[in-house]
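Hey team,

Filing this mostly as a record. A colleague (T.K.) asked me to run one chain through the structure pipeline before their review meeting, and I want the input and output archived in the tracker in case anyone asks later how it was produced. No errors, nothing strange. Just documentation.

Input sequence:
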Amino acid sequence: MKKFFIILFAGLCVVTSCIDDPIVLPWTPVTPVKPDPPTPGPDPGPQPEGKPRYVWIDASANFQYYANDKEYIAKDLTRVKEAGFTDVIVDVRPTEGTVLFKSAKAPATKRLAAWVRSSTGSTSYKFVERTADFDYLQAFIDAGHAAGLRVNAAINTFVCGYGGYYGLESEGPIFSGNIPESWATVVNYSDGVRSSFYKGVEGTVFMNPANDNVQEYMLTVIGELASYKDLDGIILDRCRYDDTELGSDFSAESKAKFTEYLGSEPSKWPVFDAGTTSGLPAKLTDEQKAWVSFRAKVIHDFVAAASDKVHGINPKIRFGCYVGAWYSTYYLSGVNWASPKYDTAKKESTYSGKVDANYSSFGYADHCDFMMLGCYAAASSITGSGEWTMQGFCNLGRKRLAGDTEFAGGPDVGNPTGWEKGGQGAKIPATINACINAADGYFVFDLCHIRMYDYWPDFKKGFDEYLNTL
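Output structure:
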């Protein structure tokens, strides 16, 4: 299963201070014009009743069932449909950086490290080998459409390998040499600036989003994915900087681009003191605030290019991104997922003194056809008006997206507080009611948890209750 939650929740640190005068840049940023909407395709026939209901299918967490068995894929997708979902989101570029679709650019997935459940219910962490040669993504498209589901493909974007835990070998293209080590992000650690890639690293290895070679590589991979003519949607996950808050990326490539952004050499490099990876200074300099906006610009520009790439190859495919709904601190990931119409510095207190006047210009919602908001609150925090409640996440998300794109929001029913050990089926209908009425759809992570804790009847009950209100 995904391991990032420990890092994620521990790293969310809110710091406030007064607003300083914004840095004056030698140019005026222009918000790129949103591309024309996709050309309507053939009549898709009858559409599902109500708002869309999405379930995420993580690659490694479900690999023991699907890696070599098309029949199991079809069986589960039929059950997904019967439970009331309308869409699946299948992970086809896991955190290892290999792919589960036809690609001439990226290496194919041969094995994934995962917690594997035995017939007796015990679990062990080990590799699941893929020996089958059928097209994994196409199998989901065929089975999903046969069941009456839309099928969306998700990729972990700026990743290139996964360092093994529990004595397992590391896996991924940066370890095999398919991706150069120089593409790994450079981090401002407490002991100095150095690459995040090293032998013995544990966890996900990120690439530098500001590296032109990295962007070209990923746009090629995204273009290959868009060539699946029957695919319904593409979603970018981990389209961000790595899990070191503002500690990355401080490579030579990033310095050159930041210098161009500023119009002059930065007075200090890195712009933060060594080890600024788990907290921020109480007060930021103008250059540090410009750095926060610069990183948001890098991600914005890539999302815009990826959207153009997908629509240029197949205008019928919907394009979007998954993001964590905790926008108040999401600048730490180098991402502004809001509408460029949303004045972040004025409307978000946690951004006071953290960003310059250009930050709002780099909101990328207007380049997405749809978005998934991870409303990953505790099992006890379903309704409410603020962040870290599922309903609050959705209501605030609507304000921040400002109508630029449709979005679905919903919980992780396996990892946050209260969800870890299952037994929360009675709360599933409440999560549906709280999120689907506040958003344009419902989203849940992950199918493995539904299977593990037998939440099928609970989702059916919740979706039936929702549909009965229409």
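Quick notes for T.K.: The two ends are 36 Å apart (CA to CA). The first strand starts at residue 53 and ends at 57.
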